[in-house]
């Protein structure tokens, strides 16, 4: 029994997740023939315009396995060839709506494209995650769980704050918060990442109305927070110190309800205060997005 446990420990100790990046450029259009032009415009906005629009996609393929005698999970030359043969050579400079039969039944949204790429690669590679960037401010994660996917939007706002507790003296606040306790505050250009989870609609290919999601984040967070002095302009921070951690928690609490009304659920809020400091908080609901996979895939700030 002990030998079996030791072998299991040794096997897990030699497991590793590797990541391969690939690039392709393609165009697509969000349009359902069974809907009228007005209905398509209402549902998809500018993405319904003829003849479509394009993106420079960035694809990350994450694979898990044990190290072999050569210190590799997989030979990266083989991985590169498989991704090229099964995905990028077919999608690069293609019109996605027509390139694969899967997109005759369901539109090639970012999240749906990530799901179909998984299906194309899974027979050939030990995939644990597909991450697909449509742009630096929009990307999807797919973990192989039926129609469930994750969609992240990135936005930004500029705000000032002061880190100090009213119950403490200036000297005590300086001891805790350093220069951040100075009485007139200081500012940051905050970058905000909002990740939602949900089921991909089998016809529209969307897990949430992207335009509606962007409006919720804009109206609930960006508009009131942008060019504000958080301590004075946001009532919540009248008594709560606006550290990056507390700001992220407050944003999570503000967004959870409105996002639920869109038919998705808020999964994670990440607030990047500077290139050196960031905070991320998760909603309490259980999720399949495991921390080991999260840590293994490169995060683009």
Automatic annotation (TrEMBL):
GO terms (molecular function) for this protein are: 6-carboxytetrahydropterin synthase activity; metal ion binding
Which cofactors? Zn(2+)
Could you list this entry's UniProt keywords, alphabetically sorted.
Lyase, Metal-binding, Zinc
EC number(s) per entry: 4.1.2.50
InterPro entries, from UniProt?
Answer: 6-PTP_synth/QueD, 6-PTP_synth/QueD_sf
Q: Which pathway does the record list?
A: Purine metabolism; 7-cyano-7-deazaguanine biosynthesis
Q: Which catalysed reactions does the entry list for this protein? A: 7,8-dihydroneopterin 3'-triphosphate + H2O = 6-carboxy-5,6,7,8-tetrahydropterin + triphosphate + acetaldehyde + 2 H(+)
SUPFAM superfamilies on file: Tetrahydrobiopterin biosynthesis enzymes-like
Q: Which family does it belong to?
A: Belongs to the PTPS family. QueD subfamily.
Put simply, this protein is called 6-carboxy-5,6,7,8-tetrahydropterin synthase
**Organism annotation:** Synechococcus elongatus PCC 11801
């Amino acid at each position: 029994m002990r030998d079996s446990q030791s072998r299991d420990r040794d096997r897990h100790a030699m497991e590793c997740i590797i990541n391969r990046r690939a690039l392709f450029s393609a165009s697509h259009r969000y349009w359902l023939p069974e809907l009228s032009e007005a209905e398509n415009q209402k549902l998809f906005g500018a993405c319904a315009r003829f003849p479509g629009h394009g993106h420079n996609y960035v694809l990350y393929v994450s694979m898990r396995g044990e190290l072999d005698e050569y210190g590799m999970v997989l030979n990266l030359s083989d991985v590169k060839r498989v991704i090229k043969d099964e995905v990028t050579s077919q999608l690069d400079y293609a019109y996605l709506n027509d390139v694969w039969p899967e997109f005759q039944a369901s539109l090639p949204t970012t999240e749906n494209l990530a799901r179909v790429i998984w299906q194309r690669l899974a027979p050939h590679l030990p995939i644990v995650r597909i991450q697909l960037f449509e742009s630096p401010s929009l990307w999807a994660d797919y973990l192989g769980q039926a129609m469930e996917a994750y969609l992240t939007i990135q936005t930004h706002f500029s705000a000032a704050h002061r880190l100090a507790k009213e119950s403490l003296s200036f000297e005590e606040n300086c001891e805790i918060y350093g220069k951040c306790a100075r009485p007139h505050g200081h500012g940051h250009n905050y970058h905000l990442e909002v990740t939602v989870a949900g089921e991909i609609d089998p016809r529209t290919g969307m897990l949430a109305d992207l335009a509606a999601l962007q409006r919720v984040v804009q109206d609930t967070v960006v508009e009131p927070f942008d060019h504000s002095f958080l301590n004075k302009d946001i009532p919540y921070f009248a008594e709560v110190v606006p550290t990056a951690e507390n700001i992220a928690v407050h944003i999570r609490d503000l967004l959870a309800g409105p996002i639920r009304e869109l038919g998705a659920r808020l999964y994670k809020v990440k607030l990047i205060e500077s290139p050196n400091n960031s905070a991320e908080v998760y909603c309490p609901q259980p999720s399949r997005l495991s921390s080991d996979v999260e840590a293994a895939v490169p995060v683009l700030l």
